[in-house]
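User: Watch each token:
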Amino acid sequence: MKRRDVTAVLASVAIAGLHFAGTGALAQPARPFVIGGLSPDPSEFTETYFSNPLREVMKTLGWEEGQQYTLLFLSNGGRNEGLAALARQLVARQVDVLAAFGDSAIRAAQQATQTIPIAAIADDMVGSGLVASMARPGGNTTGVSILASELDVKRLELLHELAPQASRIGALADPTTVSTRPQLEAAAGRLGIDLIFFTAENPAQITTAIEKIATARVGALNVLASPILYAARSEIIVATAHLRLPAIFQAPEVSYEGGLIAYGPPLSLCYRQLATLIVKILKGAKPADLPVEQPVKVDLVINLKTAKALDLMIPPTLLARADEVIE
């Protein structure tokens, strides 16, 4: 599979008072709806990721961007800093629904408004305290919880199977997301691994963490779920290749871009789920009554090109379990 192209997203905005004609169905609005987006990662809003799934769901309704709805997407260059100000900008523009990505963006949105509906994607919506429960989230927030907490240990087990000679494994984590450190440390003990944690929550700290990883003598790296770390995936892929370090990622899409192995829900499907929730909200559903959704599938993707560059032999048993192998 060729590396996916990433293009810049052009956001437009039209601010208006909006009205529904009837109930239940998504009727022609008197003026375009405004869908806002907030993420520390600008790539979240590119054609490859959230924008196209949203447009495709809207097209099933016969709706076109610029006519029945417009988009206003704001990001912060891979940083959590400044998200609160961006959230206030979206609220001031009177968006009709706010799509937020990652714990920090969701909290910034929740602090900026208690009335505008928020449709969000996070590692663990309940564990992070972003909603009251999966079944009845309460407040003005619902979304998709991508099972990061449940899958982090499984990724460590897969990495150990891939590189059994690695007695020391690093874990790169964003401290602003829900922590799975206790579960990972318990799993490392069962596997006989020394687990070394590195943390980063902005681009400068990621660079510093990579420098520390280079001198820590770890034999493999578990890159945990985070919009910040996902935004820096290219840097991390290049660094691990330079260090000849096997690394596992959460999003299968990272393996398409050169990551060695990934295990988690395809983001494209999660984005489609989020887009469907946005449509339900525009129809008049209240976020408090829309259950938080979980991914519809989890994929294991292995990039044999990267394995070859690392002179790494993938165990046949692992290849046999892969949902996709990139050759």
Remarks:
- Confidence is low (pLDDT under 50) at residues 1-25.
- The CA atoms of residues 123 and 146 lie 5 Å apart.
- The first helix runs from residue 47 to 59.
